[in-house]
Amino acid sequence: MSENPIQDTDEKSLKPLAIEGKLPLKAVGIENLREANPQYLPPHRYLHPWFARRPTPASRLAILASVLPKDTDSDNLLRWMQIGPNKDISGSLSDYVERKKATETERDGNLESHYGYPRPFTKSPTSSERSEIHDILREHWDGDLPTVLDPTAGGGVIPYESLRYGFPTCANELNPVPSLMLKVMLEYAPSVGDIESLVMHWGKKVDERASRDIQRYFPSESDSQTPDNYVSTYHIQCNSCGADIPLVPKWWIRTRSDGIRVVVRPEILDDGRIEYDVIVDPTEQDLEGFSPDDGPVSRGGDVECLQCGVVTEDDEVQKRFVENEFEYTVYCVRYIKGDGSHGFRSPNQKDVEAIEKARQQIESDFELATFLTTEIPDGQETTRTNRHGMTQWRDLFSPRQLVCNYQYIESIQYYSEEILAEYDQQTAEGILTLLTLSISKLIDRNSRLTPWDTSKGYPSQMFKSQDLGFKRIFVDTNISIGGVDFLSYLEKIYDSYEELVNYLPEESDPAKVTVDDAASLTYEDESIEAVVVDPPYYSSIIYSELSDVFYVWMREALKDTFPDIFSQELTDKNNEAVANPNRFKSVAGDETSKRELARDFYEQKMSDIFSELYRVLEPGGVMTVMFTHKETDAWDTLTMSLIKSGFIVTSTHPITSEMPQRAGMRETASADSTLLLTGRKPHGDRNPKNAVPTLWSDVKSDTRTAAKNAARELINSGLSLTKTDVIISAFGPTLRVFADAYPVVDDEDNEVPPRRALEQAREAVTQVLVDEYLEAEGIGELDDITEWYVLCWLVHESQTFSYDEGRQLGLGIGVDVDEIKRSTKTWRKSRGDMKLRGHADRVQNVEEKEENRSSRIPVNPDDLSFGLALDKVHAAMHIYDVKGESACCDWLRERNFDSDSTFKATLQALLQVLPHDHEDWELARDLAVGRTRDVLDLDFSPNVFAENSEQTQQTGIDDY
User: What is the pTM of this model?
Assistant: First the structure.
């Protein structure tokens, strides 16, 4: 449970809400993770790819707790959220859910039978439960049901759950791509309902017309061998011998051991061309002298000629693409057999000719020749595509992909006028939208950015990693057959739509859906009671740049049906509430970086949005922000925007919301937990600019105290929070202290931003974590750099983490991470993140002569003294690893490390913070046992060697 009482003594007139009291956070967090099972997700997840969606339980909690009164019983709240069994149980529902989580591994049946109730998203509140909730709300909100608004609705989870509870609901979204999903979920589902026969009738007509035109691009060997996937790559020409070089990293097509394995073996012909031999279930004899793991492309992107061995460097390869000096080629064909199973074969001449047919079709058809010629903007997410010569949106598709996708769009256009004439507007729009979602969703599986999944022998997804990364191996998919096809996708989308229809109350009113800038809404003043918002994630996801690849296709199909939504050539970049440094690279100067300009824009934009929400909220209204981010800059800008808008921060709650290290979000700025931060609109005017400033010296200690108290409470709560999440979750109480004191100024009357409070919070919570999880004596005596290195492992529990997090951790103990990067080699940049280096990257090889050693490696193991305690331990690891235990004992004695407290403290700390599968942990363990232990006179607690010691590992969700 968690409680956050209203503290502002001037605002006692606000009616307290459930979100400002105790909440069953642990039970809801468990349900969030139950929902994260990728085998069975909520139906809205299958409508169309989108880049961020909140779990149903977290969304329900945010909605219900934001409108129900504070005295709402937690068991009632969970029951209304459909959490818990419909039977008498001993104890509270929270205790029941936690017991079930703790005994998951002991169950006999499936998870649902173990818990005794289905996952909440599959159940809507009953009519009696809705009536019960509505009666309470009418009494609390002076006779009316509160209207719930989500101003940046995205994938639509929040407003859809609001509809399931029968609340008046409004949803706004700037981006047209998720706006189509919103119309399906919030307008057509409640008002049009079941239209399966109509959708499938028109879907078959669209498919029949389009499929006739694309079959010639997928020639069959026989009636029972129709290709459904061409595994494709590119050829460039070797500068040395003129031979074709395929851009293939590995020659595997399918690697699974539970079925057939498939490999391609290339054969170089006399004229330098390459033929491909597809081998199914290869024997040792088939692979004699050939390794499928060794393709021409190296990990760094360089390419080796199969004929002469000359290497073409990656920069030159990119130049070839920019200059259009490459050829598409197929090196494996997957086909459908008569019984519906799949086979694999080598490509033949007809397959090669089919590519040329598609190219000729494009050149001879005026519509195709000018189709999707809109330029791809130079953006943060499009850098890699531009580097490979993809400058127009049509360039993301091979000739065959472009023709096939186009035929379906053209077919939808062909029937759209007839559909619009035959049905009422809502029904016609619903039919056309569902048809368009099917082909748009297929784009994810049929582009040059769609990789081939070698584990399954199947086309993967363009946005599996949520970027527009160039792929050397891609898939030409026959979207008229085979499971990854128009009708199959349409059936799946309709199944999801039908589920959405069935989850809503009978005679449910549709939501009001608007497609506008959230900073300029069309709602009247003081017309909304509750706002629940999951705002854009600062700089984590640049939604508009990613979604353009879908938008350009949707626009072709629906620009006449929704002229207002699809009026622009591309999605709106100017009004998007994200911190996108790329937008400002042309105006950034020496004094103001593009990152700073992006941050300033985001802060102003969020301030404008919050001010707009303040306008539309009635006095006493509530705004709950669901924020999932790690970077201090993101919290700083969000907080300033909230405060400047006039809101009073009344509560904060951390809640587990995501599966740890979920696909697509690993090592990113997005956290695994969500913070519910609640602000209230006071009665009467409240202008924070007119408030009397508070001195930072008076606020500083309060922020540290609030952060420490929050951290200790969170550690003892049993919530599923990583150590990073503990720090982030402590930001909430810290910001409440800061907001109550705002404006805050220093001794020279300069305004102090919230990030100063967050820096104090991070430093204070880190000390709490050290006290809680590290046993090492003398840790406080270590040099700053060694201490920072140990704390990075302790806090992040990973070798790679956000650069900003590492930088902020360094600031807290006086380490400038950029200043030490080159001299100490303790870390390196990895795709914008920070990656810690182990001993192997920092210590010179003692077996090489000194004159042959690289001067860039900072630690010389022959030295008798070292500048950093970390250098001592890393050097000892190297000596033990290279020369063995006896030589290491002599080396340690020679340097008197038996009496060096900093060596022992560092070794003990690393044993506790390093993951046990890390090479350095194994060497640290070896140093701490045997003869080296005796030489060093060590007396470590057994806890430092424990695999899952409470001293070294935070309790996780699986430990409940």
Answer: 0.85
**Amino acid in the structure at residue 255:** T
User: What pLDDT digit, counting tens, does each position of 593-639 carry?
Assistant: 888 888 888 888 888 999 999 999 999 999 999 987 666 667 777 78
Q: Is 363 helix (H, G, I), strand (E, B) or coil?
A: helix
CA distance 296 to 318: 15
Which residues lie closer than 8 Å to 65 by C-beta, 6 or more apart?
17, 18, 19, 23, 72, 77, 624, 676
- The dihedral region occupied by 590, where left means phi > 0, alpha psi between -120 and 50, and beta the remainder, is alpha
Residue type, 899: S
528-533 and 617-627: which strand pairing?
parallel
**Which class for 70: exposed (0-12), middle (13-18), buried (19 or more C-beta within 10 A)?**
middle
Q: Would you call 900 exposed, middle or buried from its count of C-beta atoms within 10 A (0-12, 13-18, 19+)?
A: middle
Which tokens go with 345? 């074969």
Task: Choose between 837 and 754: higher pLDDT.
Answer: 837
3-state secondary structure of 932: helix
- Which residues are paired to 274 by β-bridges? 268
Residue whose entry in the numeric block shows the structure tokens 């967050």: 758
Cα distance between residue 596 and residue 594, in whole Å: 5
Q: How far apart are CA 490 and CA 724, in angstroms?
A: 41
**57 Cβ contact list (under 8 Å, min separation 6):** 28, 31, 32, 35, 81, 83, 120, 121
DSSP letter assigned to residue 154: T
- The CA distances from residue 486 to 96, 336, 454, 668, 819, in Å, are 45, 16, 23, 34, 55
- Calculate the CA dihedral of residues 828, 831, 832, 834 and round it to 10 degrees: -40
